[in-house]
Amino acid sequence: MVDLNIKIKDLLFKNPVLTASGTFGFGEEFADFVDINNLGGIIVKGTTLEHREGNPYPRMAETPSGMLNAVGLQNKGVDNFINDIYPRIKHYDTNILVNVSGSKIEDYVAVVEKLNHLDKIPAIELNISCPNVKEGGMAFGTSCASAALITKEVRKAYNKIIMVKLSPNVSNIADIAKSVEDEGADSVSLINTLLGMAIDAHKRKPVLSTFTGGLSGPCIKPVALRMVWQVANRVKIPVVGLGGIMNPIDAIEFLLAGATAVQVGTANFIDPQISEKIVQGIEDYLELHNFKSVYDIIGLINREK
Amino acid sequence: MKKQIKDFVIIQNQRVSPDSFMLRLRCFDPLEEIKPGQFVEILVNNSQSTFLRRPFSIHDVDYKENIISVYIKIVGDGTRQLAYSEEGDYLNLVYPLGNGFEILENKKVLLVGGGCGIAPLLYLSKKLNEANNEVDFAFGGKSHDDIFSIEEFEQEGCVSISTEDGSFGEKGYVTQSQLMYQLEEYDAVYTCGPEPMMKALAKLAAEAKVECYVSLENTMACGIGACLCCVTETTKGNKCVCTEGPVFNTKDLKW
Question: Residues of A near B (CB-CB distance < 8 A)?
Answer without folding.
Answer: 22-25, 29-30, 32-33, 45, 53-54, 56-60, 62-67, 69, 71, 74, 217, 266, 268-273
